[in-house]
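For the sake of transparency, this paper describes our internal protein records without simplification. The record that follows is passed on verbatim for readers who wish to inspect the format:
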Amino acid sequence: MIQRALRATLLAGLLALMSACDSVHFYAQAVHGQSTILLSREPISKLLESADTDDELRRRLTLVEAARGFAEQQLGLQSDGSFTSFVDAGREHLVWNVFAAPADSIDLLNWCFPVAGCVSYRGYFSEQAAQRFADKLTQQGLDVYVGGVDAYSTLGWFEDPLPSTVLRRSDTQLAGLIFHELAHQRVYLPGDTRFNESFASFVEREGLRRWLEHTGQVELYQRAIESLEVQQRFAKFVGDYREQLRALYAESAAATVQQASKNTLINEMRSAWTQHQDAAYYTSWFAGDINNAKLATVAAYFDWVPAFEQLFINSGQQFEVFLTQVEAMTQVSDSDRQLQLSVLQTVRLQGADLALVRTSP
C-alpha cells in the first residue's frame, strides 16, 4: 500500500511537471483514462471463482493465468501484479495513438515525457479527442495517422489489467501478447521504439514456441509463425516503398512536383500489394488513406528481430542470460548499441542464407 501511494505521489508530481510543458487537457484525459481503467479492474481469481462468469471468458482468463505463470517461471519475466486482473473497457480500443510526420519526410515527430522518454505518438483514451488533436496537426500541414491500440504497458508503474479489447485475439495471440507486454516490463529503453518493440516481438515469438511445446500444441506454432511472417513480409513491403519515398524527399524538387511523385508512388504501392503473396491480408490498411505518418508506423516492431534472435543463440538459448545481455545493451551509447545490433543482424541473416543453401536440392 505504501509503495502504491508513493507511486501515485510521484506520478502526480510528474504530471504537474508535464502540465507546465504541454496541454493541461492532454494530461488531464490521460490521468482520467488511466485512473478509470485501474479503478474498474476485477481480480481474475475472483472472476474464475464466480458462477456468473461467462464460460468463454472463464476459459480465456484461465489461459491468461497459465501464460502469465509460464512467463514468470520459464521466460524470466515478472508480472509484478500485471495481468492478474481484468477490465471491461466497453469500447473497441483501449487507446488511440496519434502519429504525425512532415509532408516531405517519413520520420515521425516525437513527443517527450518523463519515464517513457521520447515516443513517436500521443495516446488518447477517447477516439474523439485523438481525432481533434489529429485535425489540429493536419491543419499545420502535417501528415497524420490515428491508430487504435488494444493493449499497452505502463512499464511496471501500475498493475496492468487484461483489457476486454484483446479478447478478439486467438488463444496463441493472447498468450503472445502476455509475453510481449511483460517483456517491456523487464527491459525498456526510453526513446528507442525500434529496440523496444523488436526485443518484445522476439520474446513473444520464442515465448510462444516454448509455451505451445509446454502445452502440447506444437502443431499450432507453425500457424502462429506463419501469421507473424505475414506481418514481417508486410512490414518489409511497406518499408521498401518508404525508403523510396525517403529518396524522393531527398531530391530538391518543387513541392508540387514532389507531392505528385509521392502520390504516384503510393498508388503504385497499393497496386503492387494486390499482386503480393499476402494480398488477402491488410486490405483495409491499403484501402484507407496512406501518408508518411501511416507508413512510418509499420517499421518499428520487427526491424531488429533477427539481431535479437542471434543474441539469443549466443546466450545458449537461456532466457536469463539473454535478458541480462539485452539489459546491458541499454547501458551503452546509442552508436555502440546500433553497432552491436547491426553486427548481430548481419551474422543472423548470413547464417539464415547459408542454411537455405545447405538445404537446397
User: Anything to note?
Assistant: Residues 1-21, 353-361 have pLDDT under 50 and may be disordered.
